[in-house]
């Protein structure tokens, strides 16, 4: 019974701690007064536009080998964000299963 209670507590802590980061984004500049072209850098033509969490300006989507995950930009079309390693602890298993704090590498499926 103690083990079940401990597992439930760990899951709740992970959910509360990782869910609270959504409130930490800084506000974007008001684009009515500053044209987007002046505040955002121009993207290369070979770039697939994407956005980072909390990002106001578009960025290039991840290419093969680029980092991806919750706090990173998404992968280009045709690529998937694959986990770098399997969880080595019970806490790791909970975080992977709930897709919280997932980090990976953009790879071909």
Automatic annotation (TrEMBL):
<dbReference type="InterPro" id="IPR017891">
    <property type="entry name" value="Insulin_GF-bd_Cys-rich_CS"/>
</dbReference>
<keyword id="KW-0732">Signal</keyword>
<feature type="domain" description="IGFBP N-terminal">
    <location>
        <begin position="21"/>
        <end position="109"/>
    </location>
</feature>
<feature type="signal peptide">
    <location>
        <begin position="1"/>
        <end position="22"/>
    </location>
</feature>
<dbReference type="Pfam" id="PF00219">
    <property type="entry name" value="IGFBP"/>
</dbReference>
<dbReference type="GO" id="GO:0005576">
    <property type="term" value="C:extracellular region"/>
</dbReference>
<keyword id="KW-1015">Disulfide bond</keyword>
<dbReference type="InterPro" id="IPR009030">
    <property type="entry name" value="Growth_fac_rcpt_cys_sf"/>
</dbReference>
<dbReference type="InterPro" id="IPR000867">
    <property type="entry name" value="IGFBP-like"/>
</dbReference>
<protein>
    <submittedName>
        <fullName>Perlustrin</fullName>
    </submittedName>
</protein>
